[in-house]
Amino acid sequence: MENRNNVTEFVFMGLWGNKQMELLFFFWFLLCYLAILMGNFIILFTITCSHLIEQPMYYFLCHLSLMDLCYTSTVVPRLLRDLGAARRNISYNNCMTQLFAAHLLAGVEIFILVSMAFDRYVAIVKPLHYTVVMNRQRCNMLVFTAWAVGFWHSIALLLMVLNLPFCGPNQIDHYVCDVKPLLKLVCRDIRVVSILVIANSGMVAAVIFLVLVASYILILYNLRTRSSAGRRKALSTCSSHIMVVVLFFVPCIYIYVLPAGSENKDKEISVFYTVIAPMLNPLIYTLRNTEMRIAMQKVWSKMAHSNFQ
């Protein structure tokens, strides 16, 4: 079949059809977005302005906060605009740009979480080798690898979608340009493409999640030999990581392991990793981390003291 594309723009159907509900959720998402900006900027500022930036765990946390800021900024501002607009249209080119950017940043975030798990594994299972293994060069290499893997994941999806024919209708049953709702608009058989999407996104996310779970089980097993104080500190750190991993991965796996034609709550569940997880991450890492709270107090008191002088 000839690759025809008669669609120049798409129209989002949004999260809800009820206008009063959408007005209510406009203010809720606006508050969430402001909380994401404030929380992640505080983490970035605290880490970069303190000694914590020298520690691999906080170096990766800094990158995670940056990814949360960038990822939500590709999705939430447009969602807010559409909740308050009469017409929710997006051009074909802008849709493809949003698809690429969202999957790039989500892919990088996934591998930053893998790097954080690797850091905790080495710190707890191989403590004597920690400073040698997790040197700054290795940390930079892991971040570079995260960007490279995220790029290849997103470019593969983008090229796949660019080669698909869209002949109409052009209504996307979602609030963001994502591969699964777009596949429902393709005017040819999508079974092979759907399998490729499941392999590229769903299965990869599921395998990485299982590897992360296995690594944390090994970490918890090795904590048996630690002192009670060391065990408490390690458990506090690892529990924060586990909560963030579950919040991000479980909704992703649910959405991307199911085929594109299946009826499920994709757009509602995607709110967990587009809005809720980035909003909760700063709270999880600050409220449960004594070292982070102490660093925040020092940085902000230092700023207050310098301003006073």
Tell me the structural class.
mainly alpha
Uncertain parts: none
Average residue-wise pLDDT? 86
- Order of SSEs: EHHEHHHEHHHHHH
Major beta sheet summary: 3 strands, mixed
Instruction: Tell me how many strands there are.
Output: 3
Q: What is the secondary structure topology, with strand pairs?
A:
Elements: E1 9-12, H1 19-48, H2 56-83, E2 89-91, H3 92-125, H4 130-133, H5 136-162, E3 171-172, H6 179-183, H7 191-222, H8 228-256, H9 266-269, H10 271-287, H11 290-308
Parallel strand pairs: 1-3
Antiparallel strand pairs: 1-2
Helix pairs in contact: 1-2, 1-10, 1-11, 2-3, 2-10, 3-5, 3-7, 3-8, 5-7, 7-8, 8-10
Q: Which terms would index this structure?
A:
309 residues, mainly alpha, globular
Brief description of this entry?
By secondary structure, the protein is mostly helical.
Q: What do you see in this structure?
A:
- Keywords: Cell membrane, G-protein coupled receptor, Membrane, Olfaction, Receptor, Sensory transduction, Transducer, Transmembrane, Transmembrane helix.
- InterPro entries: GPCR_Rhodpsn, GPCR_Rhodpsn_7TM, Olfact_rcpt, Olfactory_Receptors.
- This is Olfactory receptor.
- The chain has 309 residues and is mostly helical.
- It has 11 helices and 3 strands; from the N terminus they run βααβαααβαααααα.
- It has helices spanning 19-48, 56-83, 92-125, 130-133, 136-162, 179-183, 191-222, 228-256, 266-269, 271-287, 290-308; strands at 9-12, 89-91, 171-172.
- The chain has a 3-stranded mixed sheet.
- It starts with 8 loop residues before the first strand and ends with a helix.
- The model has no long low-confidence stretch (mean pLDDT 86).
